Amino acid sequence: MVIKALAPNGGTGEFSYSKNSYFQKQNLSVVESKIEEEIQKKLDVNKLASASNMIIRIADLGCATGPNTFMNAQNVIEGIKHKYQSQCPNTETEPEFHVFFNDLPSNDFNTLFTSLPQDRSYFAAGVPGSFYNRLFPQSCIHFAYSTLALHFLSKSPEVVQERNSPAWNKGRIHHTGASKEVVDAYATQFGEDVGKFLDARAMELVPGGMLVIVMSSVPNGMPYSEVASGMLFDCMGSILIDLSKEGLFDESEIDSFNLPCYASSPEEMRKVVERNGKFSIERMELTNPMPLLKNIQTLIPDWITHVRVVMDPIFSRHFGNQVTHQMFQRLTKHLLDKVQVLETKYRDKTQLFVVLQRKE
């Protein structure tokens, strides 16, 4: 499989992911207690540890450069420890933990590992590669999670860039507001990608192991143009058209570019999981990723920066650094012009929380 998505900005500079991932941290804080609940209810830690020489292996799929990945790992470990202590209250022996940090080969693993917590209670390893492929030997992972990563496709659908295709997405950079043919092409690509993701995890997880997914989503039946991120992508496309008209690049460059992102509805995700057949769905629900947000207008500049550190490499590779910088510079004004509409959207439940368990 050709992977055309790119890892977020590395390093520790102004537009690095490691310095600009506070919003993602807030998104994940919404589901921390939910993950703990599912571990307590569903994960037989005593059985898993006993069968693996008291070693619990955990994988973060799409870890980026920190610091959120370290917080996620520690929270999962604490949850598993608590479950083991409740199952085996009279034992002095506890499992050891091995955490695998996975991301694309283009990820800045140097920054990731130089910032590893010194007082960590686990062994760490890096695993470069796409999570749409196999990453680990068969039946060796006990707990895997992918947070805010699975909505990035392995590639944009090829048919949306073919001039003779009914799904040709002329003048747009995403399926937001596009024709049904374009939306369907994205949905098909998502189904294929997540199918491969689940096939790989089904091979790697031990029976009874747990897989947690947190990703961008959209309520069943709601057009993506009605959620905040859809409005964001629409603004990006409008700005790029303006820049092309100003002579910075040819407009055909827009026709040949489509963001490899798709926010699935819960219904779509359920169908993909059921088609795979190797996992039971223990929990699936939509959450509000920013429940404490009071005023979106004041946070728009920070929101754009957080989007930029993730998507900068994707835009820069296609349009170049100058055009990409100009687009993000103008994005603040475009979103502020839409702030009254955005104010009605930020309370929407647009984050999908899924807990799957590998069938015995």
Automatic annotation (TrEMBL):
Q: Does the keyword Transferase apply?
A: yes
Q: Which Gene3D superfamilies match?
A: Methyltransferase, alpha-helical capping domain, Vaccinia Virus protein VP39
Which interval of the chain is the signal sequence?
none
Key word Metal-binding present in the record?
A: yes
> Which of UniProt's keywords are assigned here?
Magnesium, Metal-binding, Methyltransferase, Transferase
What's one GO BP annotation on this UniProt entry?
methylation
Write down what this protein is called.
S-adenosylmethionine-dependent methyltransferase
